[in-house]
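Q: How do we represent a protein-ligand complex in a form that can be generated token by token?
A: Start from the inputs.
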Amino acid sequence: MGKVKTEYVCQSCGYSSVKWLGRCPGCENWNTLVEERMYEPATSSPARTFIDVDSSSPSPLTDVDTSIQSRHPTGMEEFDRVLGGGMVRGGVVLVGGDPGIGKSTLLLQAMGKVAKRGNLVLYVSGEESARQIKMRAERLGIDSPSLLVWTEILAERITEKIKELLPSCVVVDSVQTLYSGALSSSPGSVSQVREVTALLISTVKSLEIPLFLVGHVTKDGSIAGPRVLEHMVDTVLYFDGSSGNTYRILRAVKNRYGSVMEIGVFEMADRGLREVKNPSEIFLAERPEGSSGSAVTASLEGTRVVLVEIQALVSPSYLGMPRRTVVGLDPSRVALIGAVLEKKAGIRILNHDIFVKVAGGIRVDEPAVDLAVVAALASNFLDRPVDEDTLLFGEVGLAGEVRGVTRAEQRIKEAEKLGFKRCILAEDSIKALSSPSRCTLEGVKTVKEAIDVLFG
Ligand code: TYD
Ligand code: MG
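Then emit the structure tokens for the protein with thymidine-5'-diphosphate bound:
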């Protein structure tokens, strides 16, 4: 490896300078110069790579050995599902989420399970002392001698330790607290976060050890570094949940080894996170009875169907520009449905304030929920409740048509399981069904028809 020096590089145009400048002379943006470590192009060997370079010539795809990518489940089912079946050797997973949401708890619990099976696990924390971790572990009922905890923030020392111990899994909590001795900037800065991550990644990739990195990230990525991180790691998971709500949802936003559609549902209890195996039950648990503005739909989350309640409140507006507040859904989808209701179904709600929310703090981003939004809005507007045992799903088009969605059969099965008696769905979806259902199925072609079926 060649001599190491540092430079200040503009993050938007790539201009480099030997000293820091407030404004980039290249692109004239402010505050874009960040200290970076440079490698002088030395000798013939390439600079550090993230993947293990073990052969000097290309090889036929059919000869590549994939057996090393087999899955190693942690034993925490909901977590493994989101990972795509378990940990992958040399796979690097970034777990992001707001502070206090439960990232450390989740990883400690999962690692407790891995260690319990006799695997050596290294849990490095830059935030908590070994005693604090021990206290948390006691609360979670974890006591395994093969779970090693260590408070350390110098990245070079951590990689040395990994090489020495060769654990079967490593957790670093959190990447913002670490620093590399090669840079003079403070921990948490973009360049440190990137440098530290690159160091850790190249170490675990060559040793084929799974690595979990905790990152303090908000969804808009407002904190320094994390966006850069997302490109460097194999998998990015977000741990989500609303404050005041004990349910936590883990979802993948990037996964080189699996689907990004899967979600894992947990409940934060006083002895750690409890896995929620049947999320529909909890999302429907507190459904108000006989009240207007509530409709249930079946949303596909990865490989499984989750039933969720859509709530709507429509009230005459006294503002020039009526209010639109949407929680848990795409606001433009709701705006579009509002316009369709007004123009195609004679439900004049555009001059009303509209509030729509998905109960239980979950986010659904699937066209299939459209029909339930229609039902909830119309129900509240007309002040007529939707029957409690009725479920709806289907996509709504701008012409007011109701379109079929994928996996209708699976959605109906889940509805049956939770005691629903009637499903309202697109007529096209019914035609595609292969087996009969215990639910009464009512096919509709248009939004107007759906409203007639519901409230006619
Ligand atoms: P933590 O894992 O420290 O969050 P993060 O690492 O994402 O910052 O979780 C902290 C919160 O979880 C804290 O508010 C207390 C709560 N908690 C419980 O409710 N039950 C428990 O068993 C544990 C360990 C934590
Ligand atoms: Mg933490």
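The first strand starts at residue 4 and ends at 10. Residues 190-207 form the longest helix (18 residues).
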